[in-house]
Each structure stands twice: as structure tokens, then as C-alpha cells.
Amino acid sequence: MLKDNLREFIDGAAERNFIAAADVTRLTGEILDAGITSRLEVESLLALDRIIESDESWGAALTKLVVEFVVWKRAPFGVVSGDDALWLATVLEVSGPSRNAMNIAYAILDEAGYVDVALLDFIMRGRQQARQSLMAA
Description:
Blueprint: H1 4-16, E1 18-19, H2 21-31, H3 39-51, E2 53-54, H4 57-72, E3 79-80, H5 82-93, H6 99-111, E4 114-115, H7 117-136
Parallel strand pairs: 1-2, 3-4
Helix pairs in contact: 1-3, 4-6, 5-7, 6-7
């Protein structure tokens, strides 16, 4: 279940179809000041990311929040297990690997001591799709 203030943040951003810098500050400083606490919160924020426009600060904040949750709040710490990697790769790949989705995956790869192959597969598919898009252009 989402916290009421996070649900209100998501609903408001979806209504405006935009996340402003002030929204990002409020999200990270008040609403999720202790970080993300559940997979549902990650899924909800990634779903929002796919449907709205945003200030440039949004991508960095979203990446930081997801990385902290996946790498440092899920046991074993510093490790992205097979279950977590498969879940995250699946969530990141919805609607194709976006810029923010790829940034999150790369940041996790940089931060974690071990990352299961499922997330590495997502990165490789995203890179392949990007190369194909460039060749088609």
C-alpha cells in the first residue's frame, strides 16, 4: 500500500503531466526523506516516469531513490539477488528501456558488489535496442 502523501504526489504529477524541480525537492526532502520502502513504491514511481514530462532533476532523484532501495535496503546489502534483479529488469523494461531506466540499471551496476545476470541482460537488451534505433534513423 502506498503512503497517502506519495499517492497524492503521483496523482498530482499525473494530472499536471509534469514534475517540476520543486516537486522533486518535495519528494526527496519530505515525502520520501527516508527513501523508498517497498517494491510498490518503485513500481509506482517508474510507472509515473513513463507517462509524464519532467524537470531534469527528476531522473537523478529517481535513480538515487531506486538504487538506494535495491542495493542498500534489501538484504543481503550490496547485492542484487536473482529475484530482485528479475523483478527490477521486468519493471524497467515496461514500454521499452527508457533513458531513466537505463541510468538506474547502470547506477545499480556501479553501486552493488554483485548484480544477478537478469539485470545485466536488461542492460544488454537496452544497448542493442539503442543501436538498432540509431541504425534505423
